[in-house]
Amino acid sequence: MVNQAPTKPASRVAAAPASTIRKPRGLSGTGGRTAALFLTPFFAVFALAMVAPVIYSIVLSFFAQQKSGLGFGEAKTAFVGLENYLQVLQSEAFVGGIGRLALYCAMYIPCMVGGALAFALLLDAAVARARKLFQLLVFLPHAVPGVIAALIWAYLYTPGVSPIVSVLETGGISLNFLDAHLILPSIVNIAVWEWTGYNVIVLFTALQAVPREVLEAARADGAGEIRAALSIKLPLILPALSVIMLFTVIGTLQLFTEPSIISKATASVTSTWVPNMWAYDAAFNRHNLNQAAAASIIIALMAAVLSWAVTRFSSRMNKA
Questions:
Q1: Whole-prediction pTM value?
Q2: What is the 3-state secondary structure (H, E, C) of the chain?
Q3: Average pLDDT by consecutive 10-residue portion of the chain (320 residues)?
């Protein structure tokens, strides 16, 4: 007779206690404390470097330094509400700077984004040769700091020392790039030269993610490089193009370095030529920090509104 191993009663066959079941680690346990530990330095620096200055600027913009009597008394800080904002918006120099900045955007954004897109599509085309070399040559201007780039172009624009102006004069063409009528396109040229290469790399990277089998199928159907670029590549890189547009719009509102350097070489660029220069002049030349803070908040609000508009437009384009 074969002995069989005794079987456990059904009552003893039970699930393991709940305390022995491993629960997935979430943000509420040790993992959450570890994440908070690593994120704390970032949020601390972000609060000190970004949030605190913005709050301080907002508070500062509602006050003003007022002197009693005929202006010879001791200055006192007084709450003036929106008076600083009204004075900034009533300034002809500030409003003129906004109009000048709008013209700059209308010239700079199509040239830079269109040029970056064209270069990226050419680099991605099958006929492109020596891609690495062309990428380096296109990106190289962006490696030059903005101040140095402005100094280089200020030298190239100055009559009497510029080789470009000398060559043009030899051919019978007399151009003064620092003249009041040409100074805006001259500054646009500096920014396009400086930032096109950076955006070419961004768009070229997005083009590398386009499925090659889709392009091969299009070529098999008889589509050429131009048709494939417009009908397949361009729609697939619209998200990257939207990001570039967003950053470009924000960057144009921060225009400061190029006109500040060029102003040393020509009287066509004043100290209040664009809104950022107006705020700088108010803070460090006229020593009116309250109006400078109000102007900075106005510029930030303009950037927020334009960013929202670009984001909405881009989302509709991506859904179309």
A1: 0.83
A2: CCCCCCCCCCCCCCCCCHHHCCCCCCCCCHHHHHHHHHHHHHHHHHHHHHHHHHHHHHHHCCEEEEECCCCCCCEEEEECCCHHHHHHHCCHHHHHHHHHHHHHHHHHHHHHHHHHHHHHHHHHCCCCCCHHHHHHHHHHHHHCCHHHHHHHHHHHHCCCCCHHHHHHHHCCCCCCCCCCCCHHHHHHHHHHHHHHHHHHHHHHHHHHCCCHHHHHHHHHCCCCHHHHHHHHHHHHCHHHHHHHHHHHHHHHHCCCHHHHHHCCCCCCCCCCCCHHHHHHHHHHCCCCHHHHHHHHHHHHHHHHHHHHHHHHHHHHHHHC
A3: 47 48 54 86 92 94 81 78 96 96 95 94 72 82 92 92 90 90 95 94 91 85 82 90 93 94 93 96 94 96 94 82
